[in-house]
Amino acid sequence: MIHSDIFQDNPKLSIFLPIYYTLWADSVMTTTESKEVEALIHRQYWLSAEEKEWLFEQFNPSNPPKPKLLKNLRKEIKSIPIEQESLTAIGVALAQKYQSDVSYPQDVMADFEFTEQALGLLGKEASYSFKSGHETITNVQHAEQNFNVSALTALLDGSHAELIHRVKTVISDHAFAFREFESLQDQREQTLLWCQELAKQGFGAWAFPKFADGKDDMEGYFAIMETLSYHDLSMVIKFGVQFGLWGMSIFFLGTEKHHRKYLKDVGSLKLPGCFAMTETGHGSNVRGLETTATYNHEKKTFTIHTPNPDARKEYIGNAALHGQKATVFAKLIIDGEDFGVNAFIVPLRDAEGNLVSGVRIEDCGRKMGLNGVDNGVIYFDQVDIPQEDMLDRFSSVNEAGEFESPISSDNRRFFTMLGTLVGGRIGIPRSALAATKTGLTIAIRHGEKRKQFGPEGGEEAPILNYRMHQRRLMPPLATSYALHFGLRYLTDRFLKRSEEDAQEIEALAAGLKAYTTWFTTATLQECREACGGKGYLSENRIDALKNDTDVYTTFEGDNVVLMQLVAKNRLTEFRQEFSDMNMFTIFNYVTHQAKTSITEKNPLIVRNTDKEHLLDMDFHLSAFRYRERAILTSAARRIKRHIDEGMDSFDAFNVVQHHLLNVGQAYIERIILEEFQAAVKETADEGIKAALTQLCQLFALYTIEKNRGWYLEQGYMEGVKTKAIRKEVNQLCWEVRKNALALTDAFAIPESCIAAPIARRNRGSEGKVFKATDEHR
Amino acid sequence: MIHSDIFQDNPKLSIFLPIYYTLWADSVMTTTESKEVEALIHRQYWLSAEEKEWLFEQFNPSNPPKPKLLKNLRKEIKSIPIEQESLTAIGVALAQKYQSDVSYPQDVMADFEFTEQALGLLGKEASYSFKSGHETITNVQHAEQNFNVSALTALLDGSHAELIHRVKTVISDHAFAFREFESLQDQREQTLLWCQELAKQGFGAWAFPKFADGKDDMEGYFAIMETLSYHDLSMVIKFGVQFGLWGMSIFFLGTEKHHRKYLKDVGSLKLPGCFAMTETGHGSNVRGLETTATYNHEKKTFTIHTPNPDARKEYIGNAALHGQKATVFAKLIIDGEDFGVNAFIVPLRDAEGNLVSGVRIEDCGRKMGLNGVDNGVIYFDQVDIPQEDMLDRFSSVNEAGEFESPISSDNRRFFTMLGTLVGGRIGIPRSALAATKTGLTIAIRHGEKRKQFGPEGGEEAPILNYRMHQRRLMPPLATSYALHFGLRYLTDRFLKRSEEDAQEIEALAAGLKAYTTWFTTATLQECREACGGKGYLSENRIDALKNDTDVYTTFEGDNVVLMQLVAKNRLTEFRQEFSDMNMFTIFNYVTHQAKTSITEKNPLIVRNTDKEHLLDMDFHLSAFRYRERAILTSAARRIKRHIDEGMDSFDAFNVVQHHLLNVGQAYIERIILEEFQAAVKETADEGIKAALTQLCQLFALYTIEKNRGWYLEQGYMEGVKTKAIRKEVNQLCWEVRKNALALTDAFAIPESCIAAPIARRNRGSEGKVFKATDEHR
Fold it and tell me: What is the DSSP string of A168-182?
């Protein structure tokens, strides 16, 4: 048995001691290792046969030391000052401790050091286990703040900073404190109370005309909805159902008589209502709605009716409990003739909450999330409504009982009506992004505080310093900033829309809705996992954020369907670009272009891995644009080819469906990048500009990396370049991580809304969060 | 105004009628379109100036027809039998209806048909809108069943079919019917009741020795846990905590005295207990646990103590309400000396449920899911336990109060102890896969029944016929089958493990746990979205499946950490393959190999797009193996290079962390494919073999497609080949979709467990689900 006494009796053997300790202490001593050491011992010409025999015995794998002995050895080794960077050197120091004049020939030292390496004991590493305070790049990285956070908040908030501040103040009030709900009933009532409070603050009517106590400020309405989304999302959706869907359907599909009759009570929530479009059998394909509104010439009324169970209205928010009226979409029938889907205001309950005769409502019950919203199923059994309750902006029944409309086609009229309601597809992604920002704030704060693992003998590292953790959270942080500017652009375009660009904006909204909500779902999933078990506890909020937003990918249009709508719009726009060519010419052009595009790829660029080039914003935008155009072109070509080969166009579109999703995605990504780059360019503040530039580069390169299979297939990049991009993404993640905390601070989410115990700041920052906007005013 | 009367007065103009209708009916009439038609009118030498003028007026974009007129035109067109495949031909037929002898010169007909195309009105398509019963490939695809479902079930169930059948019978009993819970308390009590019922059936003790009323059948225990996972997952996890974690810790870390003292009561659930390892500050890095167990020489007891809040035991299942004892992991201290983490049985509550003195427990409260499991936080304040309650298989304190262990190193001993508990990393992925199978069964049945959109004039298509829907659900279906065989292999290896392959099996379990649970999370997300709003309603089960399994990626080891563990094990194995080389030689070999591998890529193969080649299982396996080896080699090389350049090894591993995840993933994917291919080869039944072959091909090609960026970067494939693979994946999705319903039927999940209203079978199949296993017995 090795015993420190023996070494003290025979100090020169101590050179074996650190290797001995290390081999026994941390891994299973394998036969290979034991043989390696055996050979080393054999080679030691300065040892006696007895000493060698004794050493062989010590390194015999079936002769482990007692635990206690191993501990003593460790203490022995640690008792000398560890400066050395190899186990051999430590061994020598140890020997000299026992007998100061011990020394070993140069070749012996070299032999030991060679064996150390052969054993895979990287000397420096192994020696760290004896040191304390071992520091590495990984465990010392920490948060920095290289820009003025308040100024960035002001930049993000834009012109509605004051309103945003007001909304934050309201939802930070004690009345809005999060609490656990006893039951579904309890949660729904609380959600209603919160909405009533918001209505009282004037937020509900914000977009409505002044005569309805509104501010006539649609942009403000979106800012309100977005800011509310830092708080409970059931509240946001109930708010959106009442003031957005129910209110806006009256506002956009009705005429002044409806506005004057209803909007004031809608805005004050005196008149809770519903938006009853979706039917059980008709979710995405709403053109096929079957509810009927039959005109009665004598009584000048419409009879609303559910002809079969598939035609019942489903998932209708506000229906199960609170809704008193609903905008109902139904096929208008006059004298047996079908005039397509039109909109009608139909009573559901009286002011006391009793159901109107002929109306049957079922509760949708528990959902994955948004349980504060009372969704219901509605059946109508011959419910009569007066003629004036037809929302008649786009169609009406005249005095003679004839249908009138400036739009000839039923389908076109219906889609025109739907087009006016595109605001929902702006409010939802903005709400989704706010929820994502909250999730990222929680996960990043946790990643900063939570330490786990570390170098041998050193402090544990914050988990945000691990590359995978950065890869999980930094690209989403960059994408959140990118989407912030993308959604601002969408809002601007919507507010300034005209008849000419209506369809383009509808496609933009559809695409950004789909892109953002998928991003939200994926990011909150990463946040949950990045917070480990803590992320699974409801108190840390990611549960609610994830589950409440999960349906965002479905409502206001299923994302897959929406992305196809975007693709079809792009194909149409593509065609219109060539308006003076006929279809044959266009397809010839397309084929030609595809053939020549290969020559446009400069061989120097496809292999260029210079850092300067890779970080160049023009390179990013060119790559995005190339992808967008090439995918669109090839989609058009494929559809054409399938149809030429005799395929039904319905089948042809189905065959390329996967490709069409990429058309939509590439288009949206290009828009987002353009807007983010423009925002960066406009920024004057140097610190903020630098931070945003990094985020913009990360968004761009991460997106290219995500699509690298495509770029490689196209020959637009070669493997050396995509590999260099991956490395650059890793590096940008590492850089952005430093600012990460400050970048989430700039979202300026009220601490009372973040609420998660794992995200609590150490410094008392309760009052701090509004500072940014305060200063900005 | 165009009026059908006018056409009847001047029938030859009717050739314009279908174009007129089509342009006004479905899209906005653009200036371009109007100009195109204007030119057409101009060219008609057979028209008078007045007739032309009148026609110009009709096609004026600012002069839309009345809705009613458009409807009449449609009726007019539909009144003739529509056989024609162009609008021109329909127009001619219409003219001939009014005046049978009307005819048009050949050049006029050609001119009209050219204009139709120039307008983008693909005649055949446009004409469909006048037909009824338009069928396409897309809307007629339907479910087939090309193999014997019961025989496939028998193949999946394997040797434990009878036990699986018994478990299914139990959980289909009325006592196990799903119900909505009033409160957290209600759910937890129900979960306990279910577990008690399972214990009564003997399932809890199944793996225990006969003297503890067990069957000594570990394989059976896994089959039970997997089958139970078709039912409520809180029940499964509480079952796993009690019988797996608490029971198995006694079984594997204790000795016979503990087995005889405790196992019977554990198996019967008379003694509910906990597995208390994780601490607040020590989740993944459990080596750093801080709870202490201090030995008292005089009393021969251990004092269990929580020295600081970070050392409290956290997320401990069964702790908040029911646990009476716990296996507690704590650092053993004897005479001030730390002997590393050991395991002790510590009392928490008496049989009446009163907390033992010195024990404080807090409730973890609501979680994202698994709310039937009462997780708690435990603090120990100097709790004494008798010496015999140290679990002493791997270490003990002897009569003299000295520490004894056959394993010298504290760390090695601890990891050896953990290694015996690897069964948890088998039970969890098997449970996850069962939940995934349920989710896929629900989503595929829904996709088969739910119809939305369709060709003009045709029936709506089942959404499962859409390519994107197939892409969402078919690769996961294939992967589920693949994982079934992968997890069976893992179980077999575990049951036959020896000391030599223990580490390999630990890595295999860690990797398959991470791979499967990530797959589950992603797949259930797809299932939720694929079921649209219906997927969001809790009654359709995906809510619970997703939220309950969400933490599977975290517990039993965080997936990111586990995958790194796998990678490190692979690096070690890699090194051991070259056991007679020293490290220098190995790295030289690696560098050499990397340089030559490029020449191994046959230029014919990197571009081969033959279907036969792409579907060839040997090609698949070669590609998987190449990837595994190349990634492993390059990871080793990179780490070596960083360290050579002076980087700390902790930093070096962090820099390549993203790469290490791929090492783990590539290894696991190769294992899964090997096992799936072996299973296919062993299958005798032709129908089943064909079905499994398609699934295996889909799994392989989908996985290659997912990694195509990597294959392209490596030059292992060229773009033409990855594109051909994508096409083949689409085609396989289309083929597998036909069998999809039958393939989920083969999972033979009890209908009472599927439970989702959207997944209800039309045929009365309540009794059917056990048929497969019945026949097999």
Answer: HHHHTSGGG-----S
Can you tell me the distance from the alpha carbon of B98 to that of B96, in angstroms, rounded to the nearest whole number?
A: 5
Cα separation, A389 vs A326, whole angstroms = 11
Point out the catalytic residue in the list A33, A219, A506, A556.
A556
Q: Are A120 and B539 inside 8 Å of each other by CB? A: no
Residues in chain B, how many?
777
Span A703-723, mean pLDDT? 96
CATH of the domain at B195: 2.40.110.10
Chain A, residues 616-645, CB within 8 A of chain B, namely 643
Phi, psi of A304 (to 5 degrees): -90, 130
Q: Looking at the partner chain, which of B125, B465, B655 has a beta carbon nearest the beta carbon of A467?
A: B655
Residues B479 and B506 in one domain: yes
Say yes or no: A547 and A594 in one domain.
yes
Tell me what the mean pLDDT of segment B138-163 comes to.
Answer: 94
Lowest-pLDDT range of A144-148, B173-177, B313-317: A144-148
Q: For residue B365, which residues of chain A lie inside 8 Å, CB to CB?
A: 180, 537-539
DSSP B261: I
- Assign A653 a pLDDT band (cuts: 50, 70, 90): very high
Smallest Cα distance from A170 to chain B, Å: 27
Closest by Cα among A627, A595, A593 to A704: A627
Amino acid at B390: M
Range of the domain at A67: 4-131
Q: Kindly state whether residue B773 falls inside one of the protein's structural domains.
A: no
Name the region of B587 (left: φ>0; alpha: ψ -120 to 50; beta: rest).
alpha
Mutate to test the interface with B, among A451, A529, A587, A737 (most CBs of B within 10 A): A529
pLDDT at A573 over 80: no
Q: Check CB contact under 8 Å for A533 and B70.
A: no
A556 is known as an active-site residue? yes
| pLDDT score at B124 | 61
Residue B224 domain-assigned (yes or no): yes
Distance CA B500, CA B247 (A): 26
pLDDT in tens, A272-289: 999 999 999 998 888 899
Q: Is B159 part of any domain?
A: no
Looking at the structure, tell me whether residues A636 and A574 fall in a common domain: yes
DSSP 8-class letter at B317 = T
A535 vs B123, residue with greater confidence: A535
Choosing from A405, A421, A437, the residue where a domain stops is A421
Q: What is the domain count for chain B?
A: 3
Q: What's the confidence (pLDDT) of residue A765?
A: 39
Of B36, B538, B575, the CB nearest to A367: B538
B582 touches chain A (CB under 8 A): yes
Q: Which of A579, A676, A668, A603 is nearest to A632 (CA)?
A: A668
* Distance from the B38 Cα atom to the nearest Cα atom in chain A, whole angstroms: 14
Residue B36 sits at the chain A interface (C-beta within 8 Å): yes
- B409: contact with A, CB 8 A cutoff: yes
Which H or E run contains B359?
Answer: strand B359-363
Q: Which of residues 179 through 218 in chain B touch A, CB cutoff 8 A?
A: 180, 182-183
Q: Give the number of other CB atoms < 10 A from CB of residue A9.
A: 10
Q: Say yes or no: A531 and A662 in one domain.
A: yes
For A285-305, b where at least 16 C-beta lie within 10 A, e where not — what string?
ebebbbbbbbbeeeeebbbbb
**For residue A575, which residues of chain B lie inside 8 Å, CB to CB?**
120
User: Sign of the CA dihedral B451, B453, B457, B458?
Assistant: negative
Separation between Cα atoms, residue A249 and residue A266, nearest integer Å: 11
Rounded Cα distance between B530 and B545, Å, is 15
Write out chain A residues lying below 8 Å of B277, CB-based.
none
| Buried/exposed code over B488-504 (b: 16+ C-beta within 10 A; e: otherwise) | bbbbebbeebeeeebee
In the block, tokens 């989304």 appear at A229
